[in-house]
Amino acid sequence: MAIDSQQFRSALGSFATGITIVTTRDKVGRDVGLTVNSFNSVSLDPPMVLWSLAKKSQTRQAFLQAGYFAVHILAADQSELATRFASRMDRFSGLVLERGEKEIPLLQGCAARFQCKTVSCYEGGDHDIFVGEVVSFEHFDRPTLVFLGGRYAVAVEKPDLSGQETNTSSDLGRNTLGYLFARTYYHLRVRLRPELARLNLTEADSFILAALALNSPCTAHELADLVGVSGYQMTQQDMMRLAQRNLIDLRGSGGADQVVQLADAGTKIVLNIASVSAAIESDAVTDLSYTEIELLKQMLRKIIRRTKAPWQKDPLVLESSGVEVR
Ligand SMILES: Cc1cc2nc3c(=O)[nH]c(=O)nc-3n(C[C@H](O)[C@H](O)[C@H](O)COP(=O)(O)O)c2cc1C
């Protein structure tokens, strides 16, 4: 049966790998290196690894002659480096390098780094298979970059897909995004309440100040619309109360067109609430990895973009302020 090389490549792509950059130094002292995902472990004792290099690679002679090479397992934030070391550009330009065995170049910022002595080189079709004995290695505490289906990815712990957490009919509502969003929001708000009480602010006050923080100055009518998103109907008394405490400034005669602006004391309080909120948030995500937190934010932004109709204004931000949810 004839093998279609395109389909073969694509089938191989369903095997998730990490990504490495393998480097060495050629005989005239030039640094060489390329992006490699054929890296694998071979033996623990003695410690040995392998990788394969396309015979048509311009780096082939350097790796065959050098006798030593370094393998860098890339960290999750190094996909640009992977692209650079598979491109025609000057791969090492501007990089801060360290030097290893026989002056081979060592890259920084990776998840792990192995310096190896070449012990065998086998032919493997259109590739050469390099086997190296590890002479030293370093392991850094960084999440690794993953390569799957021709795309860069990150590894997160597999979610429970068994449905065991919510498998009774009475639990069904607890597995909706709406329930989970609302409950998360509620838990975070409850933790903020002692700070609001300390500042002698009601929930409504905090909504008004938060809306103003993004849109100051604006008219009373616009502010009422923004605060209305929280479900609270702002009143003239609310504004008077905050103005009496010098947290907001009111300009012009009362009514819908009155201009409302955050005063200096109001800005101070908003910053105070923001820093307490940040501490609450960072405690709430303690059990998530950095990668999971970034992934969660990315997913929420996608949902926000998707659920916002094209004709719909951002409900939390006035168009004139130009602040957009990204
Ligand atoms: C994710 C990824 C994995 C790669 N893995 C290998 C590999 O294992 N072996 C290899 O020879 N080339 C591999 N390549 C291709 C080389 O990095 C690329 O062809 C490079 O341009 C070779 O340049 P050279 O001719 O200077 O060696 C990979 C490229 C990418 C983007």
TrEMBL record:
Pfam families: Flavin_Reduct. Residues 12-154 form the Flavin reductase like domain. InterPro entries: Flavin_Rdtase-like_dom, NADH-dep_flavin_reductase, Split_barrel_FMN-bd, WH-like_DNA-bd_sf, WH_DNA-bd_sf. It comes from the Bacteria. SMART domains: Flavin_Reduct. Keywords: Oxidoreductase. SUPFAM superfamilies: FMN-binding split barrel, Winged helix' DNA-binding domain. The keyword Oxidoreductase applies. PANTHER family: FLAVIN REDUCTASE (PTHR30466), FLAVIN-DEPENDENT MONOOXYGENASE, REDUCTASE SUBUNIT HSAB (PTHR30466:SF11). Belongs to the non-flavoprotein flavin reductase family. This is Flavin reductase.
